[in-house]
Amino acid sequence: xxxxxxxxxxxxxxxxxxxxxxxxxxxxxxxxxxxxxxxxxxxxxxxxxxxxxxxxxxxxxxxxxxxxxxxxxxxxxxxxxxxxxxxxxxxxxxxxxxxxxxxxxxxxxxxxxxxxxxxxxxxxxxxxxxxxxxxxxxxxxxxxxxxxxxxxxxxxxxxxxxxxxxxxxxxxxxxxxxxxxxxxxxxxxxxxxxxxxxxxxxxxxxxxxxxxxxxxxxxxxxxxxxxxxxxxxxxxxxxxxxxxxxxxxxxxxxxxxxxxxxxxxxxxxxxxxxxxxxxxxxxxxxxxxxxxxxxxxxxxxxxxxxxxxxxxxxxxxxxxxxxxxxxxxxxxxxxxxxxxxxxxxxxxxxxxxxxxxxxxxxxxxxxxxxxxxxxxxxxxxxxxxxxxxxxxxxxxxxxxxxxxxxxxxxxxxxxxxxxxxxxxxxxxxxxxxxxxxxxxxxxxxxxxxxxxxxxxxxxxxxxxxxxxxxxxxxxxxxxxxxxxxxxxxxxxxxxxxxxxxxxxxxxxxxxxxxxxxxxxxxxxxxxxxxxxxxxxxxxxxxxxx
Amino acid sequence: xxxxxxxxxxxxxxxxxxxxxxxxxxxxxxxxxxxxxxxxxxxxxxxxxxxxxxxxxxxxxxxxxxxxxxxxxxxxxxxxxxxxxxxxxxxxxxxxxxxxxxxxxxxxxxxxxxxxxxxxxxxxxxxxxxxxxxxxxxxxxx
Lengths: 545, 142
What we know:
A: alpha+beta, Beta-Lactamase, B: Rossmann fold, five-stranded parallel sheet
């Protein structure tokens, strides 16, 4: 029996220690002796508390409970060895009994599991890092906005990766003798470490720091012991206060050569081992890929917006040019053709004196009309895109009174009466001169439609529609103008322009002014109605309220 | 009468109408010329005179494009509704100041339009259009 016990003590892979009820050490396995650097004679027969005078109260209590019959154990405890080393240990203490079934002492079996614990911790950490990589990839793939994506990546590093602090920044261009990097996206419990924090890439000391080095050398730099790293000296004290013990700086270079950096800090030393660095570099690649994609899409969108705007401008210019060309072709050339015909006839033999006088008078009236057309065209071209608006409150009633006076004075034969109803909107904040001019040209255009002399009533009403001022101008005369026609609006415009003969250019002039005021001139195309022009003018918030 | 001696001018420009009259009279002093500044009145005249039973007169119609109430295209739409016999005796020439190609194409595409003339009308144009019409009908010029 003794031999068997000796054999067990000699060869057991576990450390075994036996006490009697007085806690005198009666057996110790070779493993236990080896662990504690004892010889048998150093401990056998001696009281445990004499051999280990610093035994804690916790252990003394455990011994007492076990001597009272308890069985106690621990799967991972810390064992402080006399040489100062700390090991992870698994132990169990059982009381053993004599032939009378009375507790005769205790037996403790223990096993050093430090390596197992380390491996397990590494596995847990790798799992965490892989989860983080997965999360970052997900964010990078699914977030369409660059700011949100970087914000969420930093947040994930802090939360999923359980890091103390993380920040990201683009690298700015140097300004004078400084090139300062300040954290832009930042997360973590030690965020106060970043108060007033910056890295100046042109500063002699800062350049040697891990983050600056990673940027300048385009290389991931891990510092697993910040306290003892010489190059980290400028930030060492602040980092110690913030509880930061290791860091990693990961540089990014984007497609457009823009540089950036991630800096991540851990509260643990040696957090950034080779496997972790590899995962972070893969994560960096995902982020770079995502930023490049987002920026490409963004550039594409900007280009599309610019293209659309250019096309709109070209279409508008094209339309104006088409309208202008058409009017030149008809209105201007009609008068030129008259003059050509008159000048040919007036010199021909056989033309009587009376007819000659009539023709010469026609030269004068045609020239006057031609002059008016040219002046209207000139005015249209001058205002196109060059209106300097002088906005003020315009009371519609007052404006129309002035227009009526001008019509009576300048065109007495037109016999226009303006009827107005401005109960829908009394006034507008706009440019009085140009609004007057546009409305006057519109009234003159309508008066030109008449074939024979007749009284003409033009009605003008105002209203507020969808936050805009709307003026409707209708006449009582030209109901049939659009009859039976179903042409595109532009065709109708063209038709209207030329029905209005010289007035067509006036209408073009009016439209040009209104469009340059930010408004719109439209015409009713309902063939059963009178011609109704609608002027829509923008209002600011104050006017609407 | 085997000649195109009747001329109808439809144009809202009174000066042009006067010019046309003088030019036509210069070429054909005995021509019957009527002019209208209102195209509806011009159309009514054609209906009243040329659509009368037994009437076999022929006429050249000089038609402006841009006119109030009814433009040349409206006029041609209404013209299409007339009897074939009437339409065959009225030869329509567009007389316009427009040098816009769209107008010319539009005129060319209309089966009732003989030709597109650009203002001002002159004696050569009158000679030419009458000559072409006579030749087509196998008549001799006056």
